[in-house]
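Course assignment 3, question 2. Fill in each field.
Student: A.L.
Task: Predict the tertiary structure for the chain below.
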Amino acid sequence: MLNKLKKSLIILLSCIAINYSISAAELQARAKSSSQYFMDSSRILSSYYATSATISLNSGFAIDKNTGAQFTGTYVEFNEVGNPQVIRNFKNGSPDGKWYFFNESRGLTRVTNYSNGVKDGEEIEFNDNGISKSIKQYQNGLLNGASYDFDATGRLTSSITYVNNAKTGKELKYQNGVVSEERNYQNGSLNGEMKAYYPSGQVSTEGNYAYNLRNGEWTWKYPNGAIKLKENYVNGIINGTVVGYYQNGSKEREMNLSNGNGDFTQYYENGKVKVKGSIRNNKAYGNWTFYSQDGYVTSTQSFY
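Answer field:
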């Protein structure tokens, strides 16, 4: 019984979790295949390259063991069975050009471009099936530009723009090829409007962030657009009136909080009280009473 009551309270006090998924949108980013990059790496392996026999790596710099000079060229590392693990390109001892990373089966896992010792240009990570997992852009060692993530089938799952390693602008999430959520970032922090959608395109959740915290009114809706839950936030904490509704329009819950203190009541669809109790410091407090749909007390539980 105690476990059942605890489970009920978790459901009562948690923010309603919604399965986000939204309307169709035209996708501009396209996944890439590792095949072209694998062909490029194969051509490199059929040409001259250096190995650990002649080149030493020290703090990321490549040095010719025979002359002590900074190495310029291609350096390849192999595993114990002779398959390439990493192809690195250097200029004057520093990373410069494409680097190719392989798994134990010689499948490409990542291709990164370097310039003057730092990441610069496109970096692609691949799934085991050769479809790109992510595509990112770097400039002077920092994430700058559009960044995309994909599922194993090559469908877009997220897109965002970075400015000097910080998410900036609108981030879009996708499910099954359509937009499911959109958030806004400013200098790496969530700021502004957030919306999530059902596959039909109907908004399922909407609210605002300020410096990564929920602020103002947040609303959850049923697929038909009817209000499911309304909550008010101040710096990430629920404050004020909370009202929830069943799909038939009857009240599902109500709560009034001030500085983390107040009262909570939940109802059955027939309008009868289901649970009633007090909140202190944003947690259940005191004696909570549970009722049957006929209005009879079924149990009580104390929280301190």
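Instructor remarks: The longest helix spans residues 2-13. Confidence is low (pLDDT under 50) at residues 1-27.
Grade: pending
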